[in-house]
Write a structure and sequence with these properties.
- Among the domains are: about 15-75 and about 175-215, no CATH class; about 80-115 and about 350-445, no CATH class.
- A hairpin with a 2-residue loop joins strand 15 and strand 16.
- Strands 1, 4, 7, 8, 9, 10, 13, 14, 15, 16 and 17 form an eleven-stranded antiparallel β-sheet that branches. Strands 5, 6, 11, 12, 18, 19 and 22 form a seven-stranded mixed β-sheet that branches. Strands 2-3 form a two-stranded antiparallel ribbon.
- It starts with 13 loop residues before the first strand and ends with a helix.
- With about 450 residues, it is of the alpha+beta class.
- The chain has helices at about 80-125, 245-250, 340-380, 390-420, 425-445; strands at about 15, 25-30, 35, 70-75, 125, 140-150, 150-155, 160-185, 190-205, 230-235, 240, 245, 255-260, 270, 275-280, 280-285, 295-305, 305-315, 320, 325, 330, 330-335.
- The chain is flat, with a radius of gyration of 30 Å.
- The chain is built from five helices and 22 strands.
Amino acid sequence: MADDDKHDSDTDTSSEYEESDFEEEEIEELDDEVEETEEGLVDDDPTDVGDADHGVMEDEYDEHEAADSFTEVTHKSWGERLGEQAGLSIAGLVLFLAAFPLLFWNEGQAVDRAQALDEGRGAVVSVKSDSVAAENEGKLVHLIGKAKTEELLSDADFGIETNAIKLRRISEMFQWRETKVERTEKTSGGGEKTITTYKYKGVWSEDYIDSSAFRKSKRYENPSSFSFPSQQVEASSVTVGAFQVPPSLVNRIGNFTALKMSSEGSPSELAGKAAHYRNGSLYLGTNPSKPKIGDLKVRFEVVPTNVEVSIVSRQLGNTLKPYRTKTGEIELLQLGAVGSELMFSDAEDSSAMFTWFLRIAGTAVMAIGLGMLFQILSTVIDRVPLIGIHVGSVVSLGTSVAAVLIALPLALLTIAIAWLYVRPFLSLGLVALAVASFVGYRKFRRS
């Protein structure tokens, strides 16, 4: 291994590979770019792509091309696999058990939210935004108006200043990114061989990529920090007519538009990098057409003042606060002129989508947990001489299907119990569906 490659001394897996400077004997083709050898590692490009000290890409590569790739072969004995699988089985049991309270809590939240929106729909009062009526004090009000602010928002690093509700800096840095693809093969005696392909290429990313965890962390090294990370500032005082809008509602105003930057009055160099202004944005680096690791692209967006919004909230003096119902709070905002009825309908749709997302997620967690719990059976059978590898693969597939068939009726039953006291007819329907799923599982086992 090259000196700049990292080793994990805590694992018992054996690993052997060599750099592309050596001669390899080809065993099999993994894909169009990577070959596995007896030593277990091959670099696709024998040339050194990039500066090992500074992480600079050569000009022939850009963010769309793979800069380098290699494979690594590791081996595990049956005993190591069994110990690892025992730990996964415990984790699977935890996931399986955690899915029940998650599903139950989700249904309770759905019921509370539905009841809160029903209560709010019957209590809301539409008012004009240009004046505050004392008779509506403490009531749930619906109003439409222009969101405005007199504040000037600024970004001192780039000399930006503008009148807006929000000012957002979006920064992207050209960085190395490591991708990893693993393929496992069972070996005689219940062991396992893992073929891992690592690839490195330069990409533009708004998030900082920590290269210290890369397999080749020194050859592909990113800057230690983001010079000018993304950030956002908001006006502290926003009004809609005569009403003061709280930060919780300002956060929901998201119709950003581009704010063009100009070279006039702007610095020609920042953080030791040349500044190039084009198409209303800023490029920090030597050559925008040939980016190097550490180069930056910066642009700005704003939520302009005078944007029309519709709000449903509680009137408290000239301010707006969340409206508390028996089962939850109501505070809604949408862009444009939207009637109260449509706002409540949209809120119900959003709540229903979130509920279904958690239902599917909870069922998936339950099935994954069961799959992890059952997988140890396949590992045990792999030890059987001659036929273990083949039978173990069949058992692995069977346990995966069984996990899904068991998780589905259990999830439906949990949902049905949660709805039992609120919507009994729906609950009974779900119980019937759960029973039908269980019967299907029994038939699957017999077949």
